[in-house]
């Protein structure tokens, strides 16, 4: 697979036949050339910059809607780059994801966090999984009542859309301060490069007459909120690591925007498979995957909205943390 040796080593195949089938697909032109990902890169960059350049012609509202789409799409693309697409060269892939089109997160910061998240045996376990929404008993006990209330609000579907991006931004800005206070050279360089590139993008926005403040508030924040749709109850605490990642049978709009990451259980099994291969692999083995992840299946994001629009998902203290610590 184009995903490289690291992703290949982490792959969990359903059976030898699936492994053979995937290797046959990887040898075909579509997968070998990574043409869909190259076209995606061209579409996102062209769309993002063209929308800004011609926003007066389009009108502010249509341009804003388009920019939200392209910015959220770019965040999905960054995920694909991290997993070894479209080339086998991480440094080259990084070039395609370094521009801060979404404002807040340096590519390197996201890459390091996300690759650590892909250690399936630690998935959802706080501290071990940097993308976990769970807490240890000790950290939960230290929270004040108002902090627990905020976490419960964040764990509703609407809270995940409206509040979670702000909490992530605050945490990210805190990591900037910590990097310079602790003189963490690698992180400092990462943030300095990010800041310089972001300043350049803001200068260009001013040049074309588009307000950077409007972009941050009306484009970047909603784009982050869209990513929170995908991550809502994307993982759950479970004894079996295979049961910790969801299969969300979302509609075409979400499949395209999230590059099929709604089939998240398949992605965690096969992190080296390109985005355009996930849906077909799931459909070929639908019943097996649903059994494999213990029925952690949802019929689209609308189901989460109806069920949890104002009711919090119980994602607070990780229920298995003590058991796992003493195994």
Account of the 3D structure:
The protein has 327 residues and is mostly helical. It has helices at 4-10, 16-27, 29-33, 35-53, 55-58, 60-82, 90-97, 107-117, 137-142, 145-154, 157-162, 164-181, 185-207, 212-231, 252-257, 264-269, 275-284, 286-292, 301-308, 321-325; strands at residues 247-248, 297-298. The two termini are 34 Å apart. Strands 1-2 form a two-stranded parallel sheet. The protein is built from 20 helices and 2 strands.
Distance linking N and C termini: 34 Å
- What letter string, H or E per element, gives the SSE order? HHHHHHHHHHHHHHEHHHHEHH
What is the overall shape? globular
How big is the Rg? 20 Å
What's the total number of strands?
2
Q: Give the overall average pLDDT.
A: 92
In percent, how much strand structure appears in the residues?
under 5%
| Helical content (DSSP H or I, runs of 4+) | 55-70%
Strand order of the largest sheet: 1-2
**What low-confidence regions span 5 or more consecutive residues with pLDDT below 50?**
1-9, 322-327
Largest sheet: 2 strands, parallel
Contiguous helical run count: 20
Briefly note the structural class of the backbone. Answer: mainly alpha
Quick structural gist:
The chain has helices at 4-10, 16-27, 29-33, 35-53, 55-58, 60-82, 90-97, 107-117, 137-142, 145-154, 157-162, 164-181, 185-207, 212-231, 252-257, 264-269, 275-284, 286-292, 301-308, 321-325, and strands at residues 247-248, 297-298.
């Amino acid at each position: 697979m184009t995903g490289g040796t690291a992703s290949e080593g982490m792959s969990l195949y359903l059976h030898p036949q699936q492994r053979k089938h995937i290797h046959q697909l990887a040898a075909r032109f579509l997968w070998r050339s990574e043409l869909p990902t190259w076209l995606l890169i061209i579409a996102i960059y062209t769309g993002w910059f063209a929308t800004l350049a011609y926003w007066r012609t389009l009108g502010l509202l249509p341009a804003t809607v388009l920019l939200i789409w392209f910015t959220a799409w770019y965040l999905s693309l960054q995920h694909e780059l991290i997993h070894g697409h479209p080339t086998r060269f991480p440094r080259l892939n990084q070039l395609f994801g370094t521009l801060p089109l979404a404002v807040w997160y340096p590519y390197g910061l996201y890459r390091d966090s996300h690759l650590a998240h892909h250690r399936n045996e630690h998935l959802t376990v706080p501290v071990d999984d940097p993308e976990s929404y769970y807490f240890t008993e000790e950290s939960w006990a230290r929270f004040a009542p108002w902090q627990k209330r905020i976490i419960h609000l964040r764990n509703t579907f609407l809270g995940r859309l409206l509040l979670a991006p702000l909490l992530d931004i605050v945490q990210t800005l805190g990591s900037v301060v910590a990097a310079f206070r602790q003189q963490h050279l690698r992180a400092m360089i990462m943030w300095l490069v990010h800041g310089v590139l972001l300043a350049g993008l803001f200068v260009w926005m001013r040049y074309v007459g588009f307000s950077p403040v409007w972009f941050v508030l009306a484009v970047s924040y909603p784009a982050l909120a869209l990513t929170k749709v995908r991550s809502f109850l994307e993982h759950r605490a479970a004894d079996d690591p295979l049961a910790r990642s969801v299969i969300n049978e979302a509609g075409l709009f979400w499949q395209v925007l999230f590059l099929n990451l709604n089939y998240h259980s398949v992605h965690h099994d096969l992190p080296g498979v390109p985005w355009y291969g996930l849906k077909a692999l799931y459909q070929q083995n639908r019943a097996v995957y649903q059994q494999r992840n213990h029925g952690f299946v949802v019929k689209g994001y609308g189901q989460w909205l109806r069920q949890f629009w104002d009711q919090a998902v119980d994602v607070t203290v990780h229920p298995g943390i003590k058991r796992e610590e003493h195994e």
